[in-house]
Amino acid sequence: MASRTLFLCSLQVAFVILFGLAEAQLQLNFYSKTCPNVEDIVRKEISEILSIAPSLAGPILRMHFHDCFVRGCDGSVLIDSTKNNTAEKDAPPNQTLRGFNALERIKRKLEKACPDTVSCADLLAIAARDAVLLSKGPTWPVWLGRRDGRVSMAKETKQLPPPTANFTQLTQMFGAKGLSIKDLVVLSAGHTIGTSHCQSFSDRLYNFTGKVNLNDIDRLLDTQYISRLRTRCTLTDNTTLVEMDPGSFKTFDTSYYKLVAKGRGLFHSDASLLANSFTKDYVFKHANGLQSEFFQDFAASMINMGNIDVLTGNQGEIRKKCYVVN
């Protein structure tokens, strides 16, 4: 317990040094007077939700990632489309997201306890942290005070790194959000929990260069793993779910790196981590253990990501319902 407390304190100090409270405008005690039990409420609800549907942990983490990479961490991924606008959640990269109803359930609890106070953006940031923690992963201090955005447009999801991305594309897309190569290799390990639809990687099995035959495979993918995946997925399958970290997809650990090191990362973006000396070294180093070091790195990178282009002060709004602007 003492080591975890010391770790959290060091992260808090590091964040202040790196970003400065004046610049970030987020605070650890932001709701101390207006909604002091906010994190307890979210933790209780997430615990109950994951006890019934443990496979939602990965999607909730992924949703936070997808939120922050488009317009910053402003909850815009939660907004429904309207007659005149197709929102982020209905864009192709987000059509497989799950957990919206779970987050709306938590929002109702927060509104009952603290009306018009806690933003959906903050709710999502806390929920993602708790989803990781309850999957036996690390914890970290969630800096709060984000405001909710009022705009959500499907066309802006082009900023999301696709599963087909190569290393150059990944570094450019992460760099555009102020994230480093280390953040890239660390946050990629979020794939240790959750599942993916076949359509996100089936080209690696049947149609990697457009020839559509059994020999047209991604040579970076282990051949035995290809054979196993072919028993689950066809080229046109868009419904079947496959574990991203087989045998460990409900547990947050370093097994993701073991798979990538063996050529068994599910996505081309996973395999791309072996194309750079720094990220390759990180993969192989943590494939051999060092879970505590990885946990610290993941916590720090999640704090970095959670600070992307946040709305604070009088910007944006506090939505009453996460799926619609006020």
UniProtKB/TrEMBL annotation:
Residue stretches spanning the membrane: none
Cellular location(s): Secreted
Binding site for heme b: H191
Binding positions (substrate): P161
Catalytic reaction annotation: 2 a phenolic donor + H2O2 = 2 a phenolic radical donor + 2 H2O
Signal peptide segment: 1-24
Site (Transition state stabilizer): R62
Active site per UniProt: H66 (proton acceptor)
Cofactor: record remark: Binds 1 heme b (iron(II)-protoporphyrin IX) group per subunit.
A biological process term (GO) from this entry: hydrogen peroxide catabolic process
EC number: 1.11.1.7
Protein name: Peroxidase
Organism: Rhynchospora pubera
Cited PANTHER family: PEROXIDASE 25-RELATED (PTHR31235)
Gene Ontology MF terms in the entry: heme binding; lactoperoxidase activity; metal ion binding
